């Protein structure tokens, strides 16, 4: 049986918001935790659009902050499923800052996250395969196996590292 296929464009999501003084840190730039929350939010919507079930974050592979985002900017998040395995999917999020005074747009951050679709039985489901069309989509699709291998190595290292960590509280 052939695996179901969907075009990457069918998973694409957008979110644009203004940066207000309550959104910034002591450097007067968008608080990183705020942006990370927005990234996970839009990525989960993207993942669910692919598999049409609840999708859960398996890992946040990276969030690379490239440029500060200020209160004179808007922040635009664009996300799409960039690659799929059997039961997991890689979601790419591109963050664009736009200076609302000049209209200049620049990439402010990028992020890769891994999601798993969860069926009604609370078990991971098989996910449709994505088909890239644009040059950007094709580049991300072609380079995904390298990121998957790095993810696998990092996960194994994290498991080994966790064996050395203690769970006892300092006051016990």
TrEMBL record:
Superkingdom classification of source: Bacteria
Q: Which UniProt keywords apply?
A: Hydrolase
The UniProt record lists the HotDog ACOT-type domain at: 9-121
Tell me the GO BP annotations in alphabetical order. acyl-CoA metabolic process; fatty acid catabolic process
Q: Which CDD domains match?
A: BFIT_BACH
Gene Ontology, cellular component aspect: cytosol
Q: Which GO terms describe its molecular function?
A: long-chain fatty acyl-CoA hydrolase activity
Q: Which family does it belong to?
A: Belongs to the acyl coenzyme A hydrolase family.
Q: What is this protein called?
A: Acyl-CoA thioesterase
């Amino acid at each position: 049986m052939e695996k179901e296929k969907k075009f990457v464009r069918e998973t694409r999501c957008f979110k644009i918001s203004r940066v207000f003084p309550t959104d910034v840190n002591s450097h007067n730039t968008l608080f990183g935790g705020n942006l990370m929350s927005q990234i996970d939010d839009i990525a989960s919507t993207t993942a669910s659009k692919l598999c049409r079930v609840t999708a859960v974050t398996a890992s946040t592979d990276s969030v690379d902050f490239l440029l500060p985002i200020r209160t004179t900017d808007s922040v635009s998040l664009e996300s799409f499923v960039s690659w799929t395995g059997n039961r997991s999917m890689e979601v790419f999020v591109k963050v664009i800052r736009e200076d609302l005074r000049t209209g200049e747009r620049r990439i402010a951050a990028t992020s890769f996250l891994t999601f798993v679709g969860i069926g009604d039985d609370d078990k991971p489901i098989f996910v449709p395969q994505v088909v890239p069309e644009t040059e950007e989509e094709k580049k991300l699709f072609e380079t995904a196996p390298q990121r998957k291998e790095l993810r696998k190595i990092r996960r194994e290292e994290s498991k080994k590292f966790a064996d050395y960590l203690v769970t006892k509280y300092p006051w016990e």
